[in-house]
């Protein structure tokens, strides 16, 4: 029994150390001096939490993601609605401006035609006055010519 006591004491001491540090047996082997010299040793593994605790940890995260997703979808829908409203207002403004421009164009065309007509009347009136003045001058010249001719004849006698 004497031979077994040191072996038991050696075995119990690493087990106590293992349970106090909550390390896996693989981690204990990796921390041994032999593991330090072995370069091909795998990295220490972390003990996986139980599936129920994983679900408990993921539940709040999942609900926050769902809330964030719902919030983002709500924002996107709001932005889409705002964009549609803006487009509708813009289309209405464009339509109104086009109608106003069409009305202004029609009014301008009517006014230009009216001005053309008035200018044509002025031309005709000026041409008539010019013709009247030319006729009056011709008549005066004709009336003066016989008198001048008569006076010239009397002077020549």
Helical content class: over 70%
Q: Quick one: overall form?
A: rod-shaped
Counting helices, strands and paired strands, the structural category is mainly alpha
Give me the Rg, rounded. Answer: 58 Å
Short note summarizing the structure:
The protein has helices spanning 4-21, 25-30, 33-37, 51-156.
Provide the fold topology.
Blueprint: H1 4-21, H2 25-30, H3 33-37, H4 51-156
What does this structure look like?
- The chain is mostly helical.
- It contains four helices and no strands.
- 0% of the residues are buried.
List its traits.
157 residues, mainly alpha
């Amino acid at each position: 029994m004497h031979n077994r006591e040191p072996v038991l004491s050696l075995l119990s001491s690493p087990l106590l150390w293992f349970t106090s540090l909550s390390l896996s047996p693989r981690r204990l082997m990796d921390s041994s001096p032999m593991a330090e010299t072995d370069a091909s040793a795998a990295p220490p593994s972390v003990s996986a939490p139980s599936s129920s605790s994983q679900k408990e940890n993921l539940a709040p995260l999942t609900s926050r993601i769902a809330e964030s997703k719902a919030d983002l979808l709500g924002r996107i829908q709001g932005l889409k609605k705002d964009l549609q409203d803006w487009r509708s207002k813009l289309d209405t403004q464009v339509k109104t401006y086009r109608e106003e421009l069409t009305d202004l164009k029609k009014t301008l065309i009517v006014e230009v035609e009216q001005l053309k007509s008035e200018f044509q009347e002025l031309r005709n009136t000026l041409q008539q006055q010019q013709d009247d003045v030319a006729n009056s001058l011709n008549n005066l010249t004709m009336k003066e010519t016989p008198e001048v001719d008569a006076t010239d004849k009397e002077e020549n006698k």
